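This part of the workshop introduces the protein records we will be handling. An example says more than a description, so a record of this kind follows:
>
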Amino acid sequence: MSRSFYDIDSAGEVLCTYTDSGEKEKLKSEKTEVPLLKAILYAFLPAGYPHTVTGDYLAYQTFDSLQAFASSITSLLANRAVLEGLGVGDSSSSPTGALILKITGDTISRIATILFAHRMGQAIEPECKFYRFLADIFNDSAQFLDLLTPALPYLPKLGVIVSAGVLRSLCGVAANASKASLSAHFALTGNLAELNAKEASQETVVSLLGMLVGSLVVRMVEDKQVVWMLMVILAGVHLTMNYRAVRSVKMRSLNRQRATIVFREWLDHGVVLTPEQVAQRESILGNGRGNMSSKTNDYTGFCDFGTYGDLMSWNPRGYHRYDFETSTYFMGIWHRGGHFYIRIALKEGTKHPLSAWFDAVNHAYHFDSALKDGLHSHYENEMPLGYVSDEQKQTIFAAMTAAGWDLEVNALETRLPVRVRVGDGRKGPHLSEKDPIRHNGLLEAKHD
């Protein structure tokens, strides 16, 4: 009696078929033939595609390849302008002067890299889609500055070269860090290194095609007006494709904007949105990180994390203020007219601020009713109006997990996390609860 055996890959496709007839040394094998086009695609796609990556991988990589192609052409036009500005082809230009321009630009751009990475490094991962798009805005701005260098005298040229170098440094930091975060999102089976390697192969092919086409363009286009017009068109294509790329990504982590959208939808309709639904609503360019509003949108404001000193000492003139303390955080709320501002200081031992952010969205949502009779009306029976209990929050968080959200990733804090230690200042034990998301009862409230 013959039996069949199959070698399969991680996607379940058959690589080789073996037939065992039961007789010694009679095992027959037959390898599965892969069409040439499919074999070529396999060289540029992660092993086991599409089962080893998220569903938004292909759309992102397609748009990302198109934007890289347009960028390759614009970079050649910009580089030609820089070489002209440095004196290539001009016998009257000084090699020493060109070298000084180059060294000065490189020095300041490297300093800018260090400063930007120090200042914004913590914020890039939570807002990776924004910074991925911002990186290409920096890059295109630098290329337009490059086009100015041939027409400028020495000192203005130095300023333009330095400015373009700084923009490229900002682009490098933002692009590399945000790409790393996006790659981690796409990789489903611990294949992050292989996914990055395949992406490098994709970029190599696209860059080569862009250089070939760009070489023809550079050779054919000499008129300055045509160059500028072509740069504007290509930059428009470049940014459009990059915008489409980041819009296609459906992140599963909850940053400030996504968490606010999810919580607000639950407060409005009692429904938990999926990552796919939130991706269609979230803004890439808008200032949506931390923005909140009341149920009727008559009150709008902003929420942020801070230190205990920030929360307790800031009291601007004309603003009404009240604050309260829970087992995991301190919260201050200021309001003036139709605007409010919320600040949260997390206590030591609180690893995840998601529960505190939910409470902030909840407070903002009920501003319409809470402020009718003054701030004191926000509290009834020692509980804030509309306050959601711990049990309700656990039900909501469980529904969010079931909807596909990763609640373990802290994407809400965009700066170095600061915690408030209550006591004598010496290192003390952490809070008794194991999961800070599961414990957030109201302890004390105060009105100024």
About this structure: The chain has 13 helices and twelve strands. The chain has a mean pLDDT of 84. The first strand starts at residue 3 and ends at 8.
